[in-house]
Structure formats: structure tokens, C-alpha cells
Amino acid sequence: MYKATKAQFGKSTVRSLLVSALLLLLVACSANSIIEGSLSGNADNSQADTQSFSIAVIPDTQNYVDYKHQARAGFALDSSALFIEQMQYIASRAVSKGGDIAFVAAVGDVWQHQSKAMDKDHADRGFETIDNPYFSAEIEWTDKTLELEVPKAIEGYKIISEAGLPFGVAPGNHDYDAMWSVKEYPPNLKLAPDQITMTREALGLLHIGGLDNFRSAFGSDTEFFRDKPWYISSFAGGANSAQRFSAGGYTFLNINLEMQAGDEVLAWIETVLADNPGLPTMLTTHDYLDPRGQRAGNPIVDLETADPDFHNSAEELWEKLIQQHDQIFLVVCGHHHGQAMRVDNNIFGNQVYQVLADYQDRGRAGLDNGQALSRYTGQPVGIGDGWFRLMTFSLAGENPQIKVTTYSTYFDALSDDLPEYANWYRDHEQPGMSDSDFYAAEAFTIDLVDFKKRFGAAK
After folding, report:
1. I want to staple 239 with a disulfide (CB 3.0 to 4.6 A). Which of 211, 222, 263, 376 is the partner?
2. Domain residue spans in the chain?
3. What are phi and psi of 47, to 5 degrees?
4. In sequence order, which residues have a C-beta less than 8 Å from that of residue 13 and are 6 or more positions away?
């Protein structure tokens, strides 16, 4: 059983201004997951069960396709090869190829860099940017985004598409065209290095805008989705989208939301739900849970604070949308480095399972190939190490379940299979958590206690 743990959450303090800049989004807060609800082990995952299938959840892949993490840029290996290997593995397990994967959900931050200083919409609305030394490592507008990173992402998802797998991609903050330091929230440059904390009062605030780059890869009119019967709706040209897929005797609905989606997006989702009443529905979005299991954004990439008329916080998303619709039973997300799980009852008294996984900071593959530790942080350079989530549904009988496992194509192993796993990753992602709890955070089973009551028997 994946048991809840409680530990004091400490603010990250950096030793120098440069270190703090590089740690900005590497630290989406060190903390322990808060797990609530009914979780237990021993799910029957027999492939002979016709009501068993899997969903692959792909966490942030930005560091794989980062143009700086390739051999041509002096990196120890082509990190993009790990991304392609991951996609090939998922495709090889597609239902169309005799496997069990019926759908692929990608939680965003597909690539790393931006291509503009600011998008036209925000410029026209009067947004201004300021220089911010803390964000110098985070913000880079480069032609290589469209020359190298976006094409590599498309190459990877072509593998998924050609395997006949329905899939959806939610945009993350790095997938937006522009990122800048908000003028109204300047950094406090008077702080001594040991006074700098992971707060907007100390570091300032980032904002993002424009999704033309994202639409060029994953827009509704791209080859990936145009005329696909399972791609059923989109908003803002595919920045938000909906897919249907059938598996385990049910038809499921997946809805992809842009980051901290605003009220216009929520209104569109209402129409999608109205057009697909009663279908078990999952939401895929980028920024929703933090590693403590709280619905809380990164304090320095908080779109609702920077632009409240156009964005909702995670808590507002829960209050306005998720808890109001009984057919929404699952939310998956990334953005914050690490893992978390929580369960809350909606207004109907039924459970909603909310799951975070983001492994972009993991860099053992680089070390294995001779990559030096970061000279700024002293940690392995984050790539991802091939890790992603498999959510295997077993819907037969009276007690349906989801078995959640964490698998690496680089190590060809589940997290449970590696004795070094906790030593490699725990202290960075969940300091203070025990080895056993850290392993349990990556391999657990969710009891879908009210699934049959809500969605009936399989057909």
C-alpha cells in the first residue's frame, strides 16, 4: 500500500545567485507527497483479462530534446535518442500491435526553449518585461527551438501515431512561444545569497504567452489529428483538445488543457462534457499538483497571479470544473519535479484521483556516458533517464483497479527492480521520505471504489 507520509516542507535556499537561477524550475519544491483516499496492492493485471488495458503517461520530455543536450553541442550523448527509444517502446506495446496500451497522455513541456521575447497578444495588452539575472538560465529565445527541438518532438510522436495509438498532448510552459520576467514583480537583488528563497518576492515572476509553436506540432489541423475519428474536439486551434478511446469494455474521454486554463477554456470543456455525457473522463494538464500533493502552482511560474483574467489556479480548476462533473474521475499532470498522488471527493461524494509524475531532473544516463556533474548545482544534468508512467486498468469484477507503475526504457526496468532507485533520486525529489515510501510512491494500486456505480457495467 502506498501510505500517506507527512514531513516538513522546507524552502530551497541557494548558495549563490547563479545557483538560484539554475534551480528555479529544477526544484519545483522538495517535499513529500500527501496521499489521500483508497490505495491498495495486489491488482490482477492478467493480460487474459479482456477488461485490462494500459494508458501511458509521458512526463515532461523537454530535457531530452533540448538542443544543448546533444552530442553536437558537446553533451556526452544524444539525449533525444532516449526520447525516441521511449516512444518506440510505447508504440511496440500498442493494442494494434498486440500489446495493452490503448491511449497515450502527454502532460506537456514537450521541448525546452522559446522562440520569441513576447507574443503579440500580451504585448498588445500592455505587458512589459524586465531584466532578471535569476531567470537568465531559464529564458532563452532561440531559432533552434523550431530548427531542432520541435522537429524532434514531432519525430517522436509520429512513432506513436504510426502505431495507431490515439493520444493527446497538453502544452506546458516551455511549449509556449515566449517567456519573460514580469515587470510588476521584480526580483529583490539586495538579498544576500543565503537569503534567497523560492518565492516571487525574492526572485520575481515569470509569464508565458503564444502557442503558435505548439499548434505547428499538435494543432487540430496537423496530420496527427486531422480526420482522426478519435480526435473529437479542440479549442484555440488545438491548444486544448479532446479524444475518445475504447478499452476494457468502456468508452473513455480524455481532455487536454492548456496550462492554468482560463474561463473560456472551461466553457469549451463544459460543451465537450455535455456532448459526451456519462463517459469516464480524465483530464491531462501540465501544472496542477506539487510534490506535496497540494493543488498549488510554482510560485515563480504562476500564470493566475500574472494574468488573473485569463488563467485559473489549480484550486480554481478543481472548484469550477473538476468537482462539479461526476464523470471526471482522473487527473494527470507534470511540471513539478517528482511525484504525488491525492484523492478527493467531488460534490457527488465520488472519488477523483489526481496524479503527478515528472522525471526531467534525472541524469544517471548522462553520468553513465561520461557527462560531468553540473558545475552550478553539483548534481547530474537532468535528462529524464527514460522514466514514464504506465496506468494499467483492470475493470473486471466488482472491484476495478488501476495499477500504477514507473518504467524506464533506458534501464529496461521498473522502479521496484532497481536497488539504487531511492539513492539516485529520492533526496532531490522527496528529501526526508523513507526508501520504502519512495518506492511506494512510484508503484501503487488505486481502488476505483465507485467506478461501476458511476459508469455502469462494461459493454
Report:
1. 211
2. 31-455
3. -70, -10
4. 194, 195, 196, 197
DSSP 8-state symbol, 142: -
pLDDT, tens digit, 9 for 90 and up, residues 297-334 = 889 999 999 999 999 999 999 999 999 999 999 999 99
User: Can you tell me the mean pLDDT for 424-448?
Assistant: 96
Q: Would you tell me which CATH number, out of the four given (3.40.309.10, 3.60.21.10, 2.60.120.10, 3.40.640.10), belongs to the domain 31-455?
A: 3.60.21.10
- Dihedral of CA atoms 372, 385, 59, 445 in degrees, nearest 10, equals -140
Q: DSSP characters for 229-266?
A: TTEEEEEGGGTEEEEEEEETTEEEEEEE--TT--HHHH
CB atoms closer than 10 angstroms to residue 324: 15
Q: pTM for this one?
A: 0.89
State the residue for C-alpha cell 531559432.
143
Task: Name the helix (H) or strand (E) containing 376.
Answer: none
- pLDDT tens for each residue of 327-337: 999 999 999 99
Strand-by-strand arrangement of the 231-235 sheet: 231-235, 240-247, 250-256, 281-284, 328-333, 351-358, 338-345
By DSSP bridging, strand 281-284 and strand 328-333 are parallel
Could you report the per-residue pLDDT of 141-196, keeping only the tens digit for each?
A: 999 999 999 999 999 999 999 999 999 999 999 999 999 999 999 999 999 988 99
At residue 405's C-alpha, the angle toward residues 358 and 276, to 5°, is 80
Please report which helix (H) or strand (E) contains residue 40, including its range. none
Q: Which residue has the cell 516542507?
A: 9
Place of cell 509556449: 176
What is the gyration radius of the CA atoms in the chain, in angstroms?
A: 21
DSSP secondary structure letter of residue 286: S
Cβ(65)–Cβ(358) below 8 Å: no
For cell 512561444, the residue is: 177
Question: Of 360, 364, 356, nearest to 423 (Cα)?
Answer: 364
User: What's the CA gap between 266 and 316, in Å, rounded?
Assistant: 11
* Amino acid (1-letter code) at residue 373: L
